[in-house]
Amino acid sequence: MLENIEWIFFDIGSTLVDERLVYEHTFHDIAELTNLDYTFIYDEALEYYKQNKKGDIELGIKYNLPKRKWHIEDEILYKDVSDCLEILNKKYRIGIIANQPLGTKSRLERWGIMKYIDLVIASAEEGVSKPNPKIFEIALRKANCKSNNAVMIGDRIDNDIVPAKKIGMRTIWVKQGFGAYWQITGDYEEPDYIVKNISELCNFL
Q1: Is there a cis peptide before residue 66, judged by omega within 30 degrees of 0?
Q2: Containing domain of residue 41, as a range?
Q3: What is the C-alpha R_g of the chain?
Q4: Which of 12, 98, 133, 202 is 20 to 30 A from 78 (CA-CA)?
Q5: Based on the domain organization, do 146 and 166 belong to the same domain?
Q6: 141-155: per-residue pLDDT in tens?
């Protein structure tokens, strides 16, 4: 059990928000630009993710493609998120630490969950992105919270777990999206807990 926790910080993509349709859209775009079959492109991307690489980025480099649009309109809130945040909000302060474009709060409002969130730290507003530990330090400073009294919850070992551990935060890995394929290579990547979805958090937080 995690003790002495005051703040819980969440990533957004593939943690609170399902990005499956976004990636499908992206891989269709890549398939169209390369004149290759969608299934072939998807399988290539998946192999990169299994090697701890970001598949869509690696495909862009491999095929020398222009930067592709992130289809934010395809993002969908995971079905268990709102109920879980409502429960956790009664026990903890809740924050966001995420690599997100401008307008993050507006999107959280649109999804109906901003009412449970006390602090939003987004890369576009702060001018620093994960995995830089500075964005986590900014969040803790604004929350007036010590690192050992905070938990970082995210789908990415490289972006969420490693930098949060580095500054002393507790960590929970949500194995959703392509981040679930990450192969842990050392103790510095080991989270305190692993869950399959957000609803599992309510079992021990």
Answers
A1: no
A2: 20-72
A3: 17
A4: 133
A5: yes
A6: 999 999 999 999 999
